[in-house]
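Suppose you are handed only these lines of text.
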Amino acid sequence: MLIKCPYCGPRPSEEFTILGDASVRRPTSNDPATMDQWFDYVYLRDNPKGRYKEYWHHGGGCRSWLVVDRDTQTHEIFGTQAARDATLAENKKGNS
Amino acid sequence: MRYSVFSLLKNSFSGHKNWAPAWREPQPKKEYDVIIVGGGGHGLATAYYLAKEHGITNVAVLEKGWLGSGNIGRNTTIIRSNYLLVGNNPFYEWSLKLWEGLEQDFNFNAMVSQRGVLNLYHSDPQRDAYARRGNAMRLDGVDSELLDREAVREMAPFLSFDNARFPIMGGLLQRRGGTVRHDGVAWGYARGADLRGVDIIQNCEVTGIRIENGKVQGVETNKGYIGCKKLGLAAAGNTGEVAAMAGMKLPIESHVLQAFVSEGIKPYLDTVITYGVGHFYVSQSDKGGLVFGGDLDGYNSYARRGNMPTVEHVIEAGVAMIPGIARIRVLRSWGGIMDMSMDGSPIIDKTHVDGLYLNCGWCYGGFKATPASGWCFAHTIAKNEAHALNAPYRLDRFRRGYMIDEKGVGATPNLH
Ligand SMILES: Cc1cc2nc3c(=O)[nH]c(=O)nc-3n(C[C@H](O)[C@H](O)[C@H](O)COP(=O)(O)OP(=O)(O)OC[C@H]3O[C@@H](n4cnc5c(N)ncnc54)[C@H](O)[C@@H]3O)c2cc1C
Ligand SMILES: [Zn+2]
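From them, the structure of the protein bound to flavin-adenine dinucleotide can be written out as follows.
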């Protein structure tokens, strides 16, 4: 697998470490009433067969966090984005 | 027909042309008492024990491919019961006991071979950890022996004892562990279940689960709708997809694990050895090939094939442990999709839907569990409550904080 880092270009996957599902959102409250949200965030996963957005860290390169859009059935990679840009874009979508 | 030396003799006179098929190929009935989704080891064992232990024979096993096309036919065949944490040993030890009597029980040669499983240690802290694990096993009535370097050398002189960074200092040995012919397990359970009236339906993919008023009614399949009173899911790597049909989101991710077999060589390795530095485990098949594997590739996958970095990593670890295998050629490699759970332990439980039962989360150690998993799942389905042996494997343990995390790495499925 080749992952195209926005800063370093296409690099072999062994330079990267995967963290996992990029769709989960950390709850913002510590209120015990939000237990279900925490449970969901820590343990439950959609685990899709097909397109999947996930966090990878380019530890063997520029050390930035990326969001990789990949197919879990074919391993084809459709696109890569800096994690920061992905979140900013999503927040913007949420606000409009 | 019972398989025996007499049936073998009799059939040899007719040139082995008149053996009856080991199981029927029935068309699905309209309704069953129990349907099991997934004709892997666990699904077939469940059907077998439902019939044998609980007298429930109006059962169908629905398999989307052919029998043995999933992980049951892809694993590295290691069986053992060398766990540390409370809850695990009684279950895996029961599995090992079932393995010990299995071939007589289902009248099929599954080549259960208790050739021992040896885990190497390379440092003082690792020896302490293995001593602790060995003691925990003994407390649960499981056999274990802590070997020093010389005892290991006697068993396997070809290991790299004097590796400068990771010298081999000894090992934890479970003599009753070993290997089993994985296909034989699927076929034996299939035949045993079929003989007791279970319908095994291949090429039958479940595409939907019908639930009314919180109760299971049946399943949609590519062979039409089939009704059932109870439904057990044993879909291993595809569990996420199947459970989603019942509206469930699980603490499970699907990952690919690769395995390898070398060209056949003369008898060389008469036990199972695992490396204590990198993740590497190896045994020698009766055909002579070395069967080995290592870690997951690490990224979520449903592809049943992995990538080169893992191949390289596994082979490096292997050569570090047994330098002599460097010149052996790899014949084949393949992958299987693992249902990796959030604590590395399985789930055998009821669900929030009446009549729907769940068996999953086997990670890459579910082959050894096949008999006990089927046995406990059958009990859970028949009695509508968990057996004491699978009570720790509840689905709600994650919410309640009762994880069983042997490796101690937390909610990271790809690291278990
Ligand atoms: C490379 C590799 C090495 C391993 N090594 C070991 C080992 O040494 N020791 C050990 O203990 N374990 C090992 N394992 C793990 C072990 O093989 C699995 O945990 C175990 O086989 C899973 O249970 P199963 O046999 O029921 O799974 P499977 O055989 O995968 O059965 C699940 C079945 O469900 C079917 N299915 C899925 N979705 C549907 C649907 N919608 N409709 C109908 N059918 C469906 C699938 O086709 C499949 O046949 C290994 C696994 C792999 C891949
Ligand atoms: Zn980079």
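What can we learn from it? The interface with chain A takes residues 238, 240-241, 249-254, 298-303, 307, 309, 342, 398-399, 411-414 of chain B (CB under 8 Å). Residues 88-106 of chain B form the longest helix (19 residues).
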